[in-house]
Specification:
about 280 residues; alpha/beta; Rossmann fold; 10 strands
């Protein structure tokens, strides 16, 4: 269970998140909605400890997340996988290796950077890609993929962390409706089949209603709504987005469906035979 107790974050004189108190039981799929600048991304980044709270406490089970340092903090960031709007892949290296980099926090960094992954780890990475129906691109450079494919690679990388929780920060904001649906279906399937807690920042109400049984609404750094999709009335939406922003909060509704399964056996055979990386890893 994740518990936030009066968590706040300030940037100078600006309060990004104010006195946020939430309890999220294990296995929930939660959507966080609100206008840009409402504090959604800041909230997720505090949970993952990419940024530190200015006040309050964050706990996961018996662990006080907000007090972790060093190796214990790295272990938490392995258990609490993060998926970003802009994918955060290394575009110049192949898809399979990008997925394998999900193991960085659970092994020696130097060996990971040199591409010294075991056959078992390669098989697990390819299984994650198969699950997301993109095993056939395992040996392509990540930068050659479409946005929807890159986001699925990012989800596969998160799965390689064997996380207890997945945080997705606007995972479909830069995707077309078809790819947005595929990505949201993938997250829903992971939540349902493995019971992993999934917390998504989402811009549109329709997506949150279609995929999340609990919706948290933020405005001006405050949690102003916490309930079911049925409780998210037009009046609540107007409070969250304001009359001028309400139109942008709606999009064409997307309905969850199952992803196709299976991938060519040749992709597995080739991926298992790939040697170490010879090109140094650098962002950009």
């Amino acid at each position: 269970m994740l518990k936030l107790d009066t968590v706040s974050r300030r940037f100078g004189n600006t309060i990004a998140v104010s006195d946020c108190t939430l309890t999220i039981p294990a296995g929930q799929m939660v959507g966080i909605i609100g206008r840009s600048g409402a504090g959604k991304s800041t909230l997720l980044r505090m949970i993952n400890r990419l940024i530190d709270p200015s006040g309050g406490r964050i706990r996961f089970g018996e662990v006080e997340v907000s007090a972790l340092k060093g190796s214990m903090l790295r272990s938490w960031q392995r258990d609490c996988a993060m998926i970003f709007q802009q994918f955060n892949l290394v575009p110049r290296i192949d898809v399979l290796t990008n997925v394998l980099l999900g193991r960085l926090n659970s092994r020696n960094t130097a060996t990971s950077l040199l591409g010294m992954f075991t056959r078992k780890e390669r098989a697990e990475a390819l299984t994650a890609l198969e699950r997301l129906d993109i095993a056939e691109v395992a040996l392509q450079r990540a930068g050659t993929l479409s946005g929807g494919q890159q986001q699925r690679v990012a989800i596969a990388r998160a799965l390689m962390q064997n996380p207890k929780m997945i945080l997705a920060d606007e995972p479909i904001a830069s995707l077309d409706p078809r790819n947005a649906k595929i990505v949201m279906d993938s997250l829903k399937q992971i939540n349902k089949s493995e019971g992993i807690t999934v917390i998504c920042n989402l811009h549109t109400l329709d997506t949150a209603r279609a995929y999340c049984r609990r919706i948290i609404g933020m405005r001006g750094g405050h949690v102003v709504f916490d309930g079911s999709p049925e409780d998210l009335t037009t009046e609540v939406a107007q409070e969250l987005y304001g009359a001028d922003g309400l139109k942008d909060a709606f999009s064409e509704s997307i309905t969850s469906t199952s992803l196709p399964t299976g991938a060519p056996a040749l992709a597995r055979e080739r991926a298992n035979s790939v040697g170490p990386i010879t090109e140094p890893i650098a962002a950009g």
